[in-house]
Amino acid sequence: MLHPARDCSPGPNAWRADELLHIVARRERWSAPATPDGRGRINAMLPYTSARLRTKGRQEWTFGRFEIRAKLPAGQGSWPAIWMLPTDSPYGGWAASGEIDIMEAVNLGTPTDLPDAAPGTPETRLHGTLHYGRPPPGNVHTGTWYQLPDGANPADGFHVYALEWEQGEIRWYVDGVHYASQRAEHWYSQRQDAKGNWMDAPPGAPFDAASKFHLLLNLAVGGDWAGKVNTTGIDRNAYPQTMLVDYVRVYRCNSGNTDGSGCATRDPAAKPVLPETETP
Questions:
Q1: Which residues contact 188 (CB under 8 A, 6 or more apart)?
Q2: What is the DSSP secondary structure assignment for residue 158, as one 8-state letter?
Q3: How far apart are CA 134 and CA 97, in angstroms?
Q4: Which pLDDT band holds residue 223 (cuts at 50, 70, 90)?
Q5: Parallel, antiparallel, or unpaired for β 43-49 and 20-33?
Q6: Structural domain for 213, as ranges
């Protein structure tokens, strides 16, 4: 079992209290480097603060079951995510070495933009996605979404988000419901040789035995997805917003198979996600 909050001392955007990890996004002006990695020398005055926790350099995994019990934030502009990135990027820069999104949600509780939904229907979708292919602009993503029974909003209570990863197959779950699968015959990795020709990585890359991935938990505000769908932009009055995490558990299959197989939980009704069904 992994307890991400044990290494998190009290602070303005992430802390542990009441046996829960709190990740809080606030509307407040803050001066910080104007680069995604926060290492630039030129600062910018930013209108929101939040936190991202990761296990990079502490714990990485190849294959396994990843299970997180969490309560998500709501409001236009909120973008909570539970995801994984490659630590050593053996097949090259993003997205050639892959990205695994266990769960993402945007703008929960706002009017959904699903085409067939009645006006005013609240947004409740949960997304599971893989990123792979080449570095931009040749990056590819495939995934699908899931809704809780009876139109329940994931921001109204705790739910268990899980992913099972073995050689050749990745599966997504919410509260034990297996809702989607992706297989190696539909993902790939490519990089350029010295002459600029694109070369295929071995079959199964980038989600194969050569890769180690670390976990990330974060609450983003706005951005290229949350800020451009539903009612668009950021609802200033919706903040602060909090993502609560009860636990993070990582399991290794005890079958003895080095490819992570032998402990799969499969539902024949789960959706096989193909490249033609890409979602954000």
A1: 132, 133, 200, 201, 205
A2: -
A3: 8
A4: very high
A5: antiparallel
A6: 4-277
**177 token code pair:** 């419901």
What are the tens digits of pLDDT across the range 183-215?
A: 999 999 999 988 989 999 999 999 999 999 999
Specify burial of residue 250 (Cβ count, 10 A radius: 0-12, 13-18, 19+).
middle
Count of the separate structural domains present in the chain: 1
Is residue 7 within 8 A of residue 13, CB to CB? The reply is: no
Residue 22 Cα distances to 149, 180, 229, angstroms: 26, 28, 26
Give the H/E segment covering residue 224: helix 223-226
Nearest partner of 22 among 263, 266, 218, 268, judged by Cα: 218
146 touches 126 (CB < 8 A): yes
pTM, entire model:
0.92
CA–CA dist 167, 4 (Å, integer): 26
pLDDT at 144 over 50: yes
Percentage of residues of the chain with pLDDT beyond 70: 94
Residues acting as catalytic residues:
99, 104
Q: What is the CATH number for 37? A: 2.60.120.200
The pair of structure tokens assigned to 113 is 């933009």
